[in-house]
Each structure stands twice: as C-alpha cells, then as structure tokens.
Amino acid sequence: MERTFIAVKPDGVQRGLCGDIMKRFEQRGFRLVAAKFIQASEEHMKNHYLDLKDMPFYGGLCKYMSSGPVFAMVWEGQSIVKLARMMMGETNPADSKPGSIRGDLCVNIGRNIIHGSDTLENAQREIGLWFKAEEFVSYTPCAQAFLYE
Ligand code: DAT
Ligand code: MG
Questions:
Q1: What atom of ligand 1 comes closest to residue 51's alpha carbon?
Q2: pTM here?
Q3: Cα 49 to averaged position of ligand 1 atoms, centre (Å)
Q4: How far apart, in whole angstroms, are the C-alpha atoms of residue 45 and residue 76?
Q5: Positions at the binding site for ATP
Q6: Which residues are catalytic?
C-alpha cells in the first residue's frame, strides 16, 4: 500500500470544491488516513515547494498557498501516487482532460485547486512535513475485501 499527500489549495477551498475532490478519492476506493483544515505559513509553503525555489513563480506560489486555508489529506491505496496524479490531470488545467479534477473544475495554472505528490519519495517527504504520527488513524474500511483481491 502507498500513501500520498493531497491538498485542496486556497482557491479550491474558497470555491467550495473540497467535497467534490474528497468524493472522487472515496469513490475510487482510496482510504483517508489523516486530514486537517489549516492555514499554512509562507515558511511552511517555501519548504513544501523547495524543489521549485529557482522558478520565477515560486514567491507568488508560496504567498498564495499561505493566503487562506487548505484542506490537507493523506490518502492510501494501491499505486495511489500515480493514480492520484492521473485523477488530478496536468499541472496546467488547459492541458487537463475532461474527467480529471483540474480538467473539470479549473482553468488557470496558478489557480489549479489541488496539490498531489508526484513521486513516492516526495509523498513521504510531504506527509512528514504536514502531519505528525499521532494525527493518523487506523481502521479497516468495510469495503476493503471488495476493493482488493
Ligand atoms: P503540480 O502541482 O502539478 O505538481 P508543479 O509541482 O510543477 O506542478 O508546480 C507546483 C505549482 O506551481 C502548480 O500546481 C502551479 C504552480 N505553477 C507551476 N508552473 C507554473 C507556471 N508556469 N506559472 C505559474 N504557476 C505555476
Ligand atoms: Mg508538484
């Protein structure tokens, strides 16, 4: 089983899209293992997006991501890092296929409503950055036996 870090960005929260986004992960058969609704500091976002520090949009991105609440989640499931990225669509909503989260719900690259880890290694780093061990819950969803053979 893999885990990935997913966050509804401030634009997605303000537009009332948390429910729609959660619903897609629930319906796919993934298991929510941690979640919190928080406003992150700019320092926290600079650390989160450290690999983009040389990009011209880095400053604005970190400011925007700390400008309002985000809905931060950890989801678990088979191949979830790759599947979540497919569900999200491309970084630029203009390149995202209809049916994907970004392809259905947004239009602008700087307001693309959702973050999702791009590799297993980054997922582990981001999960550690956003959540403490005691914030995870342990349970078996009743559909587990029907989702996996
Ligand atoms: P993703 O969020 O798909 O993993 P990323 O990690 O390359 O994409 O970039 C992080 C965020 O930065 C992205 O969701 C939106 C913003 N961003 C990326 N490229 C951008 C660009 N060319 N102009 C403005 N914002 C950009
Ligand atoms: Mg990324």
A1: 6
A2: 0.98
A3: 10
A4: 23
A5: 9, 57, 85, 91, 102, 112
A6: 115
Closest ligand relative to 85 C-alpha: 1
The verdict on the CB of residue 115 being under 6 Å from ligand 1 is yes
Helix axes 18-28, 80-88, angle to 10 degrees: 140
What backbone torsions phi and psi does residue 35 show, to the nearest 5 degrees? -160, 145
Q: Report the alpha-carbon distance of residue 71 to residue 124 in Å, rounded.
A: 18
Ligand 2 centroid to Cα of residue 114, in Å, is 10
pLDDT in tens, the chain (149 residues): 999 999 999 999 999 999 999 999 999 999 999 999 999 999 999 999 999 999 999 999 999 999 999 999 999 999 999 999 999 999 999 999 999 999 999 999 999 999 999 999 999 999 999 999 999 999 999 999 999 99
DSSP, collapsed to helix, strand or coil, labels residue 125 as helix
